[in-house]
Specification:
Its main location: membrane. This protein has 94 residues and is mostly helical. It has 4 helices and no strands.
């Protein structure tokens, strides 16, 4: 009876000693994709300038809704992507 109880604890996750810890996808990705601080700052600057350029370029094609939507969305995604370049480093290494 005691062995059955131990097996049930292991199956539902109450017995942490018997269950091996699995590495997440993000842990594996972060271990394989390391960037220096200088590379992160370069990525930040490139994403920021291209994002602003695409957003401003979208104002030139304002009256063509498809081109406007594509360039404005791409510019905003690049501008948001710049945050990933810098903030990840400070959140994980502080």
């Amino acid at each position: 009876m005691n062995q059955a109880l131990e097996k049930m604890k292991m199956l539902v996750g109450m017995d942490e000693e018997a269950v091996p810890q699995q590495e997440s996808f993000m842990d594996d990705l972060n271990r394989n994709c390391t960037l220096s601080t200088k590379q992160r700052l370069y990525g930040f600057a490139i994403c920021l300038t291209t994002g602003i350029a695409c957003t401003l370029l979208s104002m030139l094609v304002f009256f063509n809704p498809i081109k406007f939507g594509i360039t404005f969305s791409f510019g905003n995604l690049l501008a948001l992507g710049r945050n990933k370049c810098v903030h990840y480093y400070y959140f994980t290494h502080s």
